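Summary for the lay section of the report: proteins are chains of building blocks that fold into shapes. Here we show the chain for aldehyde dehydrogenase (NAD(+)) and then a coded description of the shape we predicted for it.
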Amino acid sequence: MKDFLKQLGIKNENAGTSTGQTFLQNDEAPEIMSYTPVDGSEIASVFETTKDEYEEVIKASLQAFDTWKMTPAPQRGEIVRQIGLKLREYKEPLGKLVSYEMGKIYQEGLGEVQEMIDICDFAVGLSRQLYGLTMHSERPRHRMYEQWHPLGPVGIISAFNFPVAVYSWNAMIAAVCGDTVIWKGSEKTPLCAIAVQKIIAEVLKENDLPEGIFGLITGTRDTGEWMTGDERIPLISATGSIPMGRAVGQAVAARLGKTILELGGNNAIIISKHADLEMTIRAVVFGAVGTAGQRCTSTRRLIIHEDVYDEIRDRLEGIYQSINIGDPLDPDTLVGPLIDKDAVENMQTALKKVKEEGGSVLCGGDVLENMEGHYVKPAICEVENHYEIVQHETFAPILYLIKYKTMDEAIGYHNGVRQGLSSSIFTLNIREAEKFLSHIGSDCGIANVNIGTSGAEIGGAFGGEKETGGGRESGSDAWKAYMRRQTNTINWGDELPLAQGIEFDV
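The coded shape description reads as follows.
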């Protein structure tokens, strides 16, 4: 542990505020202690951002924006390319820190850093593709087109479960668009944010760039509220719970700012009687127990055709009995710990409600008291889709099994929750697959066929509908959210015709 912390510049006490290349530290500020969920021990402390330090970060961001927005987009892409190269150098220690501070297994920690590298590569190409449209004017000797301009400082609020990757989805795209970035990482994983900021600071320093292109603040809810209420920040991208998203959305909307909200998921897989069951089982297990069920795209519900229900249930129970739970840095581990004690208690409360509503816990759910840290056995429950507890997302490895007869019934169950992030169907029947992807099928932002709910690629826009928030991050044309659209009309003639044929003689 000491080796990879030292490589990343993490000390026993760490400044949690950065204006870009410079870290600010007020020794009288409150401290956040980072604990590893591996065994509950202390890793290091972080000084929270004070209001004065926050103002310094905002000032640096605004000043840098004046320079950064005038830097040609391909040159901005070159800086992001260098960040991607630097992340490659630090992939192993940063992946270990993600695993140690958050609790996901090491392979997933490495995968998260690779996702950062991939989005850097994507953003480099994007820096030469910030296209606008041209349009034919109804007026003679007129030309119309649209162009896209940077917004300004972009605020990013990220969650503990993906402490580095989701930040990069936003930050690297915003950067090539000409925006500056202010990041508030999760108070549960502050060291990951500091490590990434130090890596980026190296690139800024090597290129003699302004301080505030990438800034960092650290703190609890109050610190985030400074950003959401700040009119100087035109866009807030926030990842987290639905209640958090409502608060952020209301605060930013009150000042007519913009938001990208990526909130809760209650993701389901429909398993048809025509499914390839071997492939289905693999996808279900990865989606349900990976990251100990703490992904926004984790598989929460299995909607299974009655003809294959018993086989799916029995095979999953057998696999769940043999899942290796333990230290996430151990290469043999498949499931690490939950993030903290509250997460364990929330899981136990959910399982209790399952029983109270008439469902049953088929296996798992036990708290592993003999292990240091916050370890539980992933659980499988038989339920009805209308149960109140099934309608809510529990951020833990609980998999709900629901039986269906017809595809219309299955789609009704699938869409009958308030969240709409990721979805999947396993079937070899083309009619079922196409129906699931049609306007009468999945109502989620992500819909897959013969692929699980987890593991989205960076090339597609990521986000969901309904209470998931409606925002989009990462690939496709999600870049447009970080810019402002401007429609331009140029009259190159010697007359002044009006649109719609209006006559107005003076």
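Put simply, here is one thing we learned. The radius of gyration is 24 Å.
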